[in-house]
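Researcher: Quick test of sequence recovery. Tokens follow.
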């Protein structure tokens, strides 16, 4: 695969919105079946007291946040949560631990058992545990792990403004360790942290040029949490989410693009525009580690509405939704691409 250039990504991000959506939709149609959306449930298996200082994260020990901290939970809680997720129709079960790195011994052994438990329910298993070594990656793979989540968060340049306790290269090293062990990669980032469009393009450039590209790419919008340094950050305009998703779809044709954190604040029309632009995975369940997610029943209604869309009238539908959207925000935004 030839290198995907920054300039091409910037050009895509700044296309007129309906052109961008239509182009992304054409790619999406070619590589994925109609209405195919992966449902991923997420639980926190160890909450808070993380030594890292990610400025967006309520789980960091560096900030004074109203958060119920929890040690590594018992396997019986994982079993219960995975059973509920399965019953609600989830395909993938993700487990997140607020660690800088996975420790050998008790922690690794417990996670291995949790993975086996999830796999016994015929769910895909994904974990996010901080940095992992090559040997640990092999142990997780051996337990049956399908995917490892390790987001690059933002561009290499902006990264230092968001996290000082680890480097961008350390992130890439863990991604490589998981990849080399035969585990599929889930890696994306967050928008709305004060980064520029250049940073967003650079983040997508790094992801798109991983060889191979990540199988899953979560695009998150910052959910500002009181007590974190980014608590006063203004919310993103939903259009920015659509642009990021559509561009990700065009440059990472076969990846699952996940509409992730911040989805709760998007209207149904915007979420459907995100699906039409190539999003084909969502976090499904009432909570996302420590922030709220969409109601399960409302999500089922939304997905059923999306699956019934007549794609033959797509151009009209996109225009109609864009009109509803523009009326809601009652202004046309000009971005400084
Ligand atoms: S994002 Fe992860 S690594 Fe960073 S502080 Fe939160 S839990 Fe720790």
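Model:
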């Amino acid at each position: 695969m030839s290198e995907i250039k920054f300039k091409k990504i910037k050009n895509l991000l700044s296309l007129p919105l309906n052109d961008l959506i239509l182009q992304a939709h054409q790619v999406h149609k070619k590589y994925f079946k109609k209405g195919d959306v992966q449902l991923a449930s997420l639980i926190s298996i160890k909450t808070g007291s993380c030594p890292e200082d990610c400025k967006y994260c309520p789980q960091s020990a560096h900030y004074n946040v109203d958060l119920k901290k929890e040690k590594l939970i018992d396997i019986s809680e994982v079993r219960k949560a995975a059973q509920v997720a399965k019953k609600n129709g989830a395909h993938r079960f993700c487990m997140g631990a607020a660690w800088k790195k996975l420790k050998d011994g008790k922690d690794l052994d417990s996670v291995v058992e949790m993975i086996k438990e999830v796999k016994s329910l015929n769910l895909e298993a994904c974990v996010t545990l901080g940095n992992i070594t090559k040997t640990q990656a092999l142990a997780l793979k051996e337990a049956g792990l399908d995917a490892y989540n390790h987001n690059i968060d933002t561009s290499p340049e902006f990264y230092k403004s968001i996290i000082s306790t680890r480097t961008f290269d350390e992130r890439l090293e863990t991604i490589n360790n998981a990849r080399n062990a035969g585990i599929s990669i889930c890696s994306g980032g967050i928008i709305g942290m004060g980064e520029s469009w250049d940073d967003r393009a650079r983040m997508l450039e790094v992801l798109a040029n991983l060889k191979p590209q990540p199988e899953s790419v979560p695009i998150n919008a910052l959910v500002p949490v009181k007590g974190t340094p980014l608590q006063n950050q203004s919310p993103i305009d939903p259009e920015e989410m659509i642009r990021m998703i559509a561009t990700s779809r065009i440059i990472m044709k076969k990846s699952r693009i996940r509409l992730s954190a911040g989805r709760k604040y998007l209207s149904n029309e915007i979420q459907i525009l995100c699906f039409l632009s190539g999003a084909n995975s969502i976090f499904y369940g009432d909570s996302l580690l420590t922030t709220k997610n969409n109601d399960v029943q409302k999500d089922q209604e939304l997905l059923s509405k999306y699956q019934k869309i007549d794609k033959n009238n797509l151009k009209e539908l996109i225009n109609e939704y864009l009109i509803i959207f523009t009326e809601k925000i009652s202004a046309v935004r000009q971005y400084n691409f």
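The chain has one domain: 6-329.
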